[in-house]
Amino acid sequence: MASAVDFLKDIETDGGEAWKPDHKTAMQCRDLEDFLKKAINKFNLIRSADEEWSRRVEAGSATFDPAFAKELHRLYEWWMDLYESGLDGIALFEKRRYPVEGANEFRDAFFTATSILRTPVEMIIEAMLEDRE
Q1: 86 with 106: CB under 8 angstroms?
Q2: Residue 127 domain flag
Q3: Is residue 55 part of a domain?
């Protein structure tokens, strides 16, 4: 255990600024959390549009449109390209034992987008057009 004298020497040596590196890291983690929040919000918008359109097509109140299906697919790709770095950021801060707010929700969104993109959009379009015939 450090003595009060050792503590005072440490303060003297670093000018009382020992907290700065931890504070900087905490602020970087906070920036990551803001990044993840934006990513999750955008994903939820894309996912909601996809689910609503799919419901309407299944109910017959909307016609299946291959161009719209391709655009939704591109939106998922865009989202993954834009926010993929969030996974690295989460890993970095969690390795340092910082709790990252939104990490699990972001991972779930990323997994869902990956699953959706695993099926080529052309296969989906082909299957939907066959069903209409």
Answers
A1: yes
A2: yes
A3: yes
Site of tokens 């993954």: 80
Rounded CA-CA distance 124/74 in Å is 14
Spatial contact of 115 and 75, defined as CB atoms under 8 Å apart: no
Per the domain annotation, does 13 fall within a domain? Answer: no
pLDDT tens, position by position, 4-43: 456 555 545 655 555 455 777 888 899 999 999 999 999 9
- Establish how many alpha carbons lie within 13 A of residue 122's alpha carbon, considering only the half-sphere containing its beta carbon: 0
How many independent structural domains does the chain possess? Answer: 1
3-state secondary structure of 100: coil
Query: Which residue's entry shows tokens 């080529």?
Result: 120
- Domain with 90, as residue range(s), is 21-132
